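Replying to the earlier thread about multi-chain prediction with a worked example.

Input:
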Amino acid sequence: MKAFRYARPNDVASALPLLSATQRPKGGGFDLLDLAKRGVASPDMLVDLSGLKGQQPPMDGIDGAGDHGETVIGARVTLARIEASAEVAARCPALADAAREAATPQVRNAATLAGNLLQRPRCAYFRDPFFTDCLKRGGSACAAQDGVHDEMAVFGNAKCCAVHPSNLATALAALRAEVRIVTGIDAKGAPKWRTAACDEGFFVRPEQDATRECAVGPGELVWDVIVPAARASAYVEVNHKQSYDWAQAACCAVLDVFEGKIRGARIVLGGVAPVPWRAEGAEKAIAGTSGAAGALDAAAEAAAQGATPLRDNAHKVRLAKVVVRRAIEAALARAGR
Amino acid sequence: MTKHKVKVGVGDRVEVREIDVPDGELAPWDADTKFRSVGTNVPRVDGEAKATGRAEYTADVRLPGMLHARMFRAAQPGGKLTSLDVSAAEKAPGVRMVRVLAQPGRALKMEGQDLALVVADTEAQAEDALLLCKAKWDQGPVYATPEVAMAAGAVSIHEGKENNVRRAPAGGGRQGGDPFARAEEAIQAADFVIERTYRTQVQTHSPLEPHGIVVRPDEDGGITVWASTQGTFSVRDGFANSLRIQQPMVRVITEFMGGGFGTKFGPSSPGSGFGVETARAAIDLKRPVRCMLDRREQHLCGGNRPSSVQTVKLGVTKAGKITGYTVRMYGTGGLAEQGAGARNPMIYNLGATAVESSTVVTHAGPQAAFRAPGHPQGSFALEQAVDEAAHAIGADPLAFRRGIDGSSIRAHQYEEGAKLFDWAAKRSRYANQKGAVRRGVGVAAGIWHQPGGSGATVLVTVHRDGSVEVTNGAQDIGTGTRTVLAVIVAEVLGMDPHAVRVNLGRTEWPFGPGSGGSTTAPSIGPCARDAAEQAKRAILGASFEGVPTASQWKAACRKMDVEEQVFSGKRSNQYASFHNGTAGLQFAEVEVDTDTGVVRVLSVLAMQDCGRVIDRLTAESQVIGGVIGGISYALFEDRRLDPKTGRLLHGDLEGYRIAGARDCPDIRAVMTDVSNAGNAAGMMGLGEAPSVPTAGAIANAVFHATGARVREIPMTPARVLAALDAAAASKNGGR
Ligand SMILES: Cc1cc2nc3c(=O)[nH]c(=O)nc-3n(C[C@H](O)[C@H](O)[C@H](O)COP(=O)(O)OP(=O)(O)OC[C@H]3O[C@@H](n4cnc5c(N)ncnc54)[C@H](O)[C@@H]3O)c2cc1C
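Result:
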């Protein structure tokens, strides 16, 4: 691992100028250090965000007092806090599900919201610098396409088949959350902001740019995420192992339920595509129904439309159908309460 | 030989036998012996040191002036080295030495092959310097799987050989002639013939502490070595040979070690000469040098359990008799030219048997002995084949096994186990399930065969203040050898086991065996009893009956006319016993999500014999650990290589999945106490046996739950779903 410098700025105005492609903000540091140790990344500096003060809302807060029922969650909030938050559980329980299903208690105690969203894929080829021609390194070939790929993407995989690793990404895309990003510091020393929508623009498909999964620039800082209220929401995943394992397939369903009828739905798949994968067909199939078995089957079938499994991963299409059904059921159960 | 009347047996099946005991051996403990400590729950004597971190492992050793070594390794197999440039590394900060270990022209046969050893002031500097070493090679074909290595036209990986297949002579024929022809005839005479292929993966040992060593050159021309090893004396002898130093001048120390599972013998590791090279560097630089492998190196060069593809054929009669049984199998243990033979443990009466096996050489690190070498593979095939036979004739799998199993100990285990596990009730409760999530139960048996042997000496030292030490040079691989010795000495001398000081893991002390083949405890345990009995006789007098009280012992010790007395205990080779080998039986209860193919093990009951149980806690702990290893083998572990480049895909314990806390079910270990004779303590080895039957029991439970046979491990969701589909298709299409 290449030696790096370490900075812990006190406020956002001094943090921003430090950031660059090789001077990286550090959340929990799990992925940053793992990639550095494997020689996949070689940062010159880690910018520890834990000392930032003075900016409102704080980067480590959960605020559920929004006018429209939205919850504002700071970029530094740990997965453990999201999992345990009464506000998250009451307003957008799918996000708590997603946090709870990730990693291990030890990891969740230190891993952060922004770090989770911006972590890099677990693709074994990408994580081994030996495969120099990897598309994610700006190369021209994907060794996984005809290599070992049974856990790789079954949707949107024509170019790169690494799946997006983040549980929270799947949930936030379905919840139509917005990410607030500090893009720079103005002449008066105040942060400049922009907002990116998790269902539109925040996640980057390989066809757009294979070297990144999220549209956050090298000099930018994710500050917080605004999550609209969605009580009838749930996130479910299928794991091979019960401890310490990434999802084989995941689904977040967000339903608009009125008097027992599903008026509309947002259904997003995780673990099966390079980005959180919206299943519009499933949304249409379930809308206007009461979520009975036949409608669930139709939604599951519709979700599988357009899948392009590789030689050895067709089973993941089947898993995608299962999680769609289970996520809708779980979200419906919450609508009843 | 002296004849002794000994009460031997299991449970209420005990009998008095007249047994020839070699002269100089004590009469063995038997079913009538009353124990105070032996067989009770004694917490590990070193538990606190381990739990608090006070215990010092090889990885923890820091010596003044110590340097750090790391190996520059080949990035992929299949090529020939054309150049190796270490000049930049030599100039890197802190680097003391770079020793080139491979010249241009050298064939690169595995990822991780030794190319150059880098020694630097810090581990980080050594690692940084590795990045500056540059190798170039001409890439040739890569044989990452046995199928590719066996294909027509594949060239031999090893020089001077015709191809990559090493066929072992067919076994099974004691009467001469062609055993396959005879077995085939017997099979065809049965009512049902079953032929199936079972597959198992390459598994790596994955000890928590990787291979590692610290070597200090001493002023007298010898060396002192701290080694993470399961054979202190194997390390000593390996260094004595390779460095031409007298054995006593190589002082090996292994106070604590973090697991070996069969792969940690000798100075280095199966796929690397790092240990010997580290010692050479230490001698040349006149400084202590440390080298610990990292996780990726451990997967690459730390040995592995070979894969297997086993085609089993058997004949079964309607009456539940197996008439014949054949296995044709191949597997790969990487570069190793032997060792891939899956051992079908012939624990059942299988009629005429024949076995043929081939080891296929592939471009990967060589295999090494791994917890019951060959047995988990073979058992996975055998136990499912037996289950399939039972199913063919509509028999209960447990009753069917009882009918073909001649072991009197397992007879007891079938009975007790079925009761404890509630076998019959669970079998019927799970018979007709409808939902997506289904449960089932399965059973599988296991054997092992290690009674230990002679060759070791254990010292018991009694001090004038009454304190007692027990000393042997062998290591405690982590199984609880220290505690076992303490319990035995405490038993004889009437002490609290925690008051006995145990000295283990130094070759300056008397020889003890390596921890391989489950030999350590049964080899040195009886010696400890011998030494302790001598101490008791010498200090309390030959006429003293029973065990002394603390004050009696202290008073007697105070009267010693020397400051301390040392008693040297030995054992003979195993003599006549009730039973050869150990018996085990495991029951598994699983839950299968038939929508997703995810299998979860809910509970395992392991009935296990190891002769006399010395410390029940460490014995049960060993069984539980074995079961966890078996679950991990059945469901998760898989060392995978990229087929094109031969590159290891998961050099960690993340993509290389290993059972975690939530994957461990409710495991109940029930020791079957057997009074066995054979040695003074009646002990048998327990290291390996408990990991043998687990995968088969789980596979059988999955079948019971779903009607689908998963004949390949690990049981990934994809494989389970495919098996479910196949079962559904054969149901609909008819067979
Ligand atoms: C054993 C294990 C199992 C896991 N399993 C799962 C799982 O099942 N599901 C799942 O979703 N995750 C899983 N994870 C990932 C884990 O949840 C962490 O979220 C993730 O590793 C990164 O979080 P972090 O806070 O440590 O990020 P860091 O490593 O600190 O950062 C990750 C990236 O985000 C950038 N970054 C961090 N903060 C900001 C910011 N405010 N603005 C801009 N960029 C920023 C960093 O520069 C870096 O590029 C697992 C991790 C481990 C170690």
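The two ends of chain A are 51 Å apart (CA to CA).

Feel free to reuse this layout for your own posts.
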